[in-house]
Amino acid sequence: MLIKALKLKPVTKEYIWGGRKLKSEWGKEADTATVSESWELSDFPGSESVIDDEMYPGYTLGKLYEKHPEFFGDKIRDFKRFPLLIKLVDAGKDLSVQVHPNDEYAAANEGGSYGKTECWYVLDADPDSYILLGFKRDVTREELKTALENGTVTELMNKIYVKPGDFYFVPAGTVHALCKGVTVLEVQENSNITYRLYDYNRTDKDGNPRKLHIKEALEVANLSAYVPEAQKEYRDFIYGKVRKLCSCEYFKIKEVQFNDLYIMYAFDGFAAFTVAEGEGKLLKEDAPNANADGVPFKKGDTFFVPRGAMVRLVAPHGKIIITEI
Predict the structure, then answer these.
(1) 225, 245, 258, 313: which could form a disulfide with 240 (CB 3.0–4.6 Å)?
(2) Whether 255 and 188 share a structural domain
(3) CA–CA separation, 95 vs 97, rounded Å?
(4) Using CA atoms, how far apart are residues 271 and 264, in angstroms rounded to an integer?
(5) Residue 42 lies in a domain
(6) CB-based contacts of 135, cutoff 8 Å, min separation 6
(7) Are 65 and 120 members of one domain?
(8) Rounded Cα distance, 158 and 136, in Å
(9) What's one Pfam family here (predicted)?
């Protein structure tokens, strides 16, 4: 049996803050005028991404695991359910100021769910666009409550201007917001639990105030000052440049930039990669050279790489973000 990278068909989501870039610039198809999120690698109930490959027609990630657990490696057995969710997120408007619980709180209060530690790789950013990430200084719970009542919570937060290629780690408990004009690749635990603290007094599509979750948010928020890490440095390697972006208990992420050819292996377990720049082809397993036919890829595509696979990407220039557990 051939072991190869498998293209994924995402699930798109639309919320009141979504933009148009995922459709116009990242190739995402949807019936809605705007797309807020594209769930690229997902085994979340009701929002499962599907394998887009004739060898596994209609397979979700869950079905692929059921039929071929060897594709996922041994480490996945350490998790009670599929551990990852990978998204593209386009903030056409500011997202709410929000926070996510850790695993312990979510397990006790959200029906056994995972918590949500996440990270952002900035794919696109309008001039002067920014994110809000953690507090500038230590705050008290009473101080935070007062700021929420007065609508001044954003004044307590780090306002960070961003550009493509920036990377930010967002541990569970960190109060944060993506803001207008920022498009990111988001890698996170497989959870959709969000507690909104502040939403600019917006209403939903029916004219009702959007629900806030002040009690829960105050219970899980980290009130200590958040100091963003410096951006990681690149190092040269045989195919181009690489930098390790993150290594935590939930996922490992690196960025690879290559010219002409990049060969990647999934030795110990599965991997996934999303194309951040470039277009080209994945050579077939029996391709004799780089001029042979292959599976096309373009910016915005995400592939699942089974354990044991060797993947050869060919492009004049490419940038991919690789995620492993």
Answers:
(1) 258
(2) no
(3) 7
(4) 10
(5) yes
(6) 156, 157, 158, 175, 223, 224, 225, 226
(7) yes
(8) 5
(9) PMI_typeI_cat
Q: Is 68 labelled a binding residue?
A: no
Range of the domain at 44: 6-220
* Mean pLDDT (whole number) for 186-211: 95
User: Is residue 54 in some structural domain?
Assistant: yes
Report the amino acid identity of residue 93: K
The model's pTM:
0.96
Model pLDDT for residues 82-123, shown as the tens digit of each residue:
999 999 999 999 999 999 999 999 999 999 999 999 999 999
Structural domains of the chain, count:
2
Structural contact between residues 235 and 243, judged by C-beta atoms closer than 8 angstroms: yes
- How do 157-161 and 235-237 pair as beta strands? unpaired
Catalytic residue numbers read 196
Which among 218, 289, 295, 242 has a CA at the least distance from the CA of 2? Answer: 295
Longest dimension (CA), the chain: 66
- 176 labeled binding residue: yes
